[in-house]
Amino acid sequence: MTSEPPCSNAEVEGVGKAERVKMGKTAFWIFFFFLPLLAFGCGRKGAPVPPGAIVPAAIDDLKAERIGDQIRLSWPIAKTGGKPLSDIKGFELFKFQARDAGTLCPGCPVPFTKALTFIQFDSPSPARVKGTRMFYHDSCDPSYGYAYKVVTHHKSGGVSDDSNVVIVLPLQE
Asked: How far apart are CA 162 and CA 93, in angstroms?
């Protein structure tokens, strides 16, 4: 006497196939739903900003002038209602030095690596405030060219975007 299995092979395979199709459809819809979330992210590039942080406006009027063996930098101080913004923590000043003037072409990206200095707003020495502008003098070698940019730090932790980049070309020999 041979005993028959409770189900034939065709029935076992059919049930398995139906389950695989159902799992495949579920996986497809999960993937289809979450793919856009992974592809687009949060939408803003750059460093994360702490919750509640005030992000100062980027400085758009950084100026540089070579005076002998120094470069005088100046930029406007952020204002609200005509008065300097009191919650500024300070300014981070970046410098790039290049022997070859071709490295400092207008519109070319400048490889700033680390900050030259951080200027505290409450006690800006060696920088100084005159009217509505901050002034900073940097020593320089006349045979080198320089590029500078500034970012503003708010006391809440917010950091502005980069300022405009100013370029000071080396003196002709």
From this structure: 10
